[in-house]
């Protein structure tokens, strides 16, 4: 690992040095020796102006591949740097599904121009693929399956394949299609090469791999690939006609992007944001999240302000109140995370909802009591006041119970409303635990002191 | 999607109903019709005692496959429910890499017994695979590559393959190995089937897919598969001898697990925890995280307590101080998330560290000034006090700058220390922003008021 990482860093360093010294030829040479995925990585790690300089040195015929490895924002920016004709030339050997993704990222008129520059059958296929939603099986698929008939023999199939120059990338399976155009099964290449030449395709084909409906959500396609260890799978329309093929590399990309997106979203960041992009753009997108947080913080402040008289009477309350809010926030986010994951994995269903509630509330009772006692005793020792210890203990217990209830209901509610719980769940939860924490603690103190 | 989800839920419901009615035969029948991955999903969604009942109805010959789809904790528990001989029987057709993973999850003596029950060449291969660290290429690989010599012709290869009953699952490529045992290249099945029978393997083989060193970290293997769109890849030892083969399905599992782990860890949860496990075990693991958080909350409380006199003088400070801490926490976690991701993707390297610092500090100056003014004005309007507005504005600016600095340095420091920044980064950051937020706000107020 060390070697590779150093090698990579050295590579980046070498390119930057060559760039700094104006040795553009050397930059071009270094780039030419680098895999498109790595070139994309290098570009993303450069500040915008150096990035533009390096980008201009990438060979036109490799630029298209590089674009497919970039995050959206950077991809769109760099594609627009290219001369339209060069852009069209650079993408002409891309796989169709990659080209579709690229067009969807680009501003409308540039995408349209790319489409127009594509000719014949490829153009037609491209238009069909573009018509499917990005987040569906149709949006993931390629239009390149190799079809064979069920009633032919292995020898015939082999002769047919030898007529082809090469098979599409990631071909592990031929699609068996009847004369009516309906998908019947898959013939694995690994089965084909071990079969006798006079065996019939219909006897060899795998029927377990059912056709994936073209409108199946991408997340479900990913789950299917994972569960069945698929390398590729057929996609069918409503009439079970074969319309395309999904390959595992696109599914892997999707899984990585989804994981990445949820981590970024939890911090209110845009997944496709450029780590080294312009400062002003970066500030703007983050300011929104800070603004949302301000509203919830003001809500908590408003709750506290209701108890100014109590705080005036006993200023130690101000010292301790953040503890109540923070313990609730942590406990709630544990429940929230577990529920969000359970929903994503399909573990949580109608039949076991009650069990989940019992378990989470049970855990929060135990942890609530435990930490109520610990914190109560600590505060008693610190402030030498049994009353203050009692108040904070009670408030901790109340807030941990509320936190568990909120951690359970918020994601289930958001899920039912069709909102991604990973996006909004955290903010709503913290609002609840802050408000409840301050309210319970200061409210109990007010009752006790009056 | 709806159809499948309902179907699945209905399935679970049907199994639970049959179980409730004591119709065990029907349970067995329903299970037999379900893919092992789905059976695993069903088991994870059941409470422990129903789970045990359903598990006892799974056919022995399918139980091994089901185990490979379960999360660790549940997998270990259910494997131990089986009679040792049944367990040994259930795993005898598992792929070796799956069996390795299983043995690593099981308690020592059960794993040892499984190993002892494996015979001959399989046992030998198993022992070799078990000797590699789980998180390395060796831990991901299988010992089943099909080898061919570089100097033979396609026709010979085809005849050799036809002698084999079937190829190992997920075979898309034969490994070309010289007489010295060294890996030379890969021969894709898709190339083989389109080639003429008298072409030579050495002319057809792909040499771009280099052998993966057996000690390459799993994360790097995943990156490699992703970048090069690999379906399988050869693994070689230090002498470049072919020792095994990694297939993409295991890489996908690894990517999913890693993503899952980082989300769970951020909430202080154990990735392999059972969503429906016993309450006490669940409470214990979460209590640790709450305890760590308590220490940081007490630290913040200690800071506040230094300013009790000031709070006594102006109780409005208690109302407003959580706002300062919370805005800092959000801003800091944005920087933190971006840096953690940049490190994971390899975007952040020595050469661009300064650029990253400039950008993040720039963003925090802009957002710091923006929100200092907004919140200052709000507080001025709310409390009719220009002084209070000025104090909170200044504190917000200071805390957002500290937050950015902490969000930058904490992950870089943890990364250098070899600690996963995703695990500990969040807690440390919040401690910094809480402490700094309270200190800056109350400290400034003390200066102003005195």
TrEMBL record, chains A, B:
Location in or out of the cell: Cell membrane; Membrane
Protein name: Magnesium transporter MgtE
Transmembrane segments: 287-307, 313-340, 361-383, 389-414, 426-449
Membrane topology field: Multi-pass membrane protein
GO-annotated cellular components: plasma membrane
Source species taxonomy: Bacteria, Pseudomonadati, Pseudomonadota, Betaproteobacteria, Burkholderiales
The keyword Magnesium is annotated on this UniProt entry: yes
Annotated PROSITE patterns: CBS
PANTHER family: MAGNESIUM TRANSPORTER MGTE
Native source organism of the sequence: Hydrogenophaga crassostreae
Alphabetized GO MF terms: magnesium ion transmembrane transporter activity; metal ion binding
